[in-house]
Specification:
By secondary structure, the protein is of the alpha+beta class. It contains three helices and four strands. The protein is globular, with a radius of gyration of 12 Å.
Length: 79
C-alpha cells in the first residue's frame, strides 16, 4: 500500500527544517511520496496548526506535531 506524508510548516521554522530532513530520508528509504504545505497560505491551516508546527500527516491523518520521531514514522509506514 502506498502512503503520502504531508508536512505542514512555515518559512523560518527551524523545527520544520529538522522535520523536513527526517521525512525526506524516511520517505526515500521506504519509497513513499511526501509533500509540504505552508500554513501561512491558508487561514484555516494557520488557525488550526499555528501552535503545533511542524505537523505531520500520513494519508491525511495527523501523525505527529512539533518533532518527527524517525522510528515512529518508519513504523507507521511499514506496519
Amino acid at each position: 500500500m502506498s502512503h503520502l506524508i504531508t508536512l505542514l510548516g512555515r518559512p523560518g521554522c527551524h523545527l520544520c527544517d529538522e522535520a523536513r530532513e527526517v521525512i525526506a530520508r524516511v520517505a526515500a528509504d521506504v519509497g513513499v511520496a511526501w509533500e509540504e504545505r505552508d500554513i501561512t497560505r491558508s487561514e484555516e491551516d494557520t488557525r488550526l496548526y499555528r501552535d503545533q508546527i511542524p505537523v505531520t500527516f500520513i494519508d491525511g491523518v495527523q501523525h505527529d506535531f512539533w518533532r518527527v520521531d524517525e522510528r515512529r514514522l518508519r513504523a507507521a509506514l511499514e506496519g
